[in-house]
Amino acid sequence: MQVSSICLPAKVPVRVKSLHTNPATVNDPTSTAKVAAPKWAQKTITLPPLKRGCHLITSKIVKEVRQELSEYQCGLAHLFLHHTSASLTINENYDYDVRDDTETFLNGIVPEGPSAPWKHTLEGPDDMPAHIKSSMFGCALMIPISNGKLNMGTWQGIWLCEHRDYPTPRTVVVTLNGI
Amino acid sequence: MQVSSICLPAKVPVRVKSLHTNPATVNDPTSTAKVAAPKWAQKTITLPPLKRGCHLITSKIVKEVRQELSEYQCGLAHLFLHHTSASLTINENYDYDVRDDTETFLNGIVPEGPSAPWKHTLEGPDDMPAHIKSSMFGCALMIPISNGKLNMGTWQGIWLCEHRDYPTPRTVVVTLNGI
Amino acid sequence: MQVSSICLPAKVPVRVKSLHTNPATVNDPTSTAKVAAPKWAQKTITLPPLKRGCHLITSKIVKEVRQELSEYQCGLAHLFLHHTSASLTINENYDYDVRDDTETFLNGIVPEGPSAPWKHTLEGPDDMPAHIKSSMFGCALMIPISNGKLNMGTWQGIWLCEHRDYPTPRTVVVTLNGI
């Protein structure tokens, strides 16, 4: 198994096994070490209505927190959707067909319409399926931050999956934490 | 896209785009700034046995950590279930039918009983389906904390989904981190 | 509901309800309290190719971060897979059949082959199913750290689920944060 470290102090070789750890000198007023104090930031983003289906929203999210991200050498970014009929997931960022096929899959395994077995139907035939899909993919993501940027794989992107027929604005709480 | 900030220091207008960030003055013993130091808390909660199905447990969880939550202006709350045959998810907090329909969905897509294709059957016919459902919904949640409370959407609640026929107490490790 | 605290300072009885919280004395240079400053560490691990199916990788992960974990009394460990055709999940750590049955389940609900409805087929018949399975189980985990170790339940383990036919090395970014 290969191991490499990221988020290291400058001038430290990339392949060392030891991790970057901010030294425990915060409590020592006599220390001259420059330790970055842990930082927190939190921001609420309202995405415009998106039609039913899976949408790549990486650039929309990054645009809103690029400046703040740039202040974190090492940390974590949390995205939390305030809704129970949409979801957040990480998946392929290039071919639109992947998002379309994922919507096809979700519609194939969650029954919808007159023959569906749902008791909760007051909010429309697409509502109960939307709740189920929301729990299948989840409403939250946590992504590492390294060197001021979201540290995702080459082909990874952030998706918002809208599960309702009549789209509405969707609220995402972004919380950043790191050094 | 609308953006608003939450978790801001007092007297900062709500609509400013800049995030709340605790200043990096922790290392400066001459600073007079009142910086809230990052805090950690961790607590193990044992939930009583709940029958097979989906259960709203928001109030049970909040009751156990309300006091501690109130000390965090900005942060994250992590819930981690210690089991592989139950799950935690966030979904609708009002209509009981949504929880019932979700249980119906899970039972519909995960085969159970003599015709199911499972090799792992020693612990009963409901055990292997329970493991699968646990990975489908997951055993952990991360929820933002803002102004001393869990920052969830109006209709969101925390669900414990019990996938076994004979319920047992379930352990949840709650970890709070923030300022 | 039973409640117990973990991750407490030494000599504090185990059953007290109050949580462990690191005192807010970091900003007070006159304080003599020994406060552990919040620490961050981040490491990239490359797992060797694993055949299609579910694999228990707890020991592989722990081996790479055991030393660093030992420095955290209380915290969170985040694992983030850099791929969209594999997934990370937490499930049963003992019987191999559970992992095999889970692979059987995934193959049963995600259509694959000539009759599958996918538009995205250029990368092979197993590629689009792999993307869907990746979003079903997710590409990230967050696990509490208590007393220098991952705080999982007795039967819980970390699984890497490889959804492609021709396995490749898989990259996991591990981020540790705590005190």
UniProtKB/TrEMBL annotation, chains A, B, C:
> Which residues belong to the signal peptide in this entry?
none
- PANTHER family listed in its UniProt record: SECONDARY THIAMINE-PHOSPHATE SYNTHASE ENZYME, UNCHARACTERIZED PROTEIN YJBQ-RELATED
What's the protein called, per UniProt? Answer: Secondary thiamine-phosphate synthase enzyme
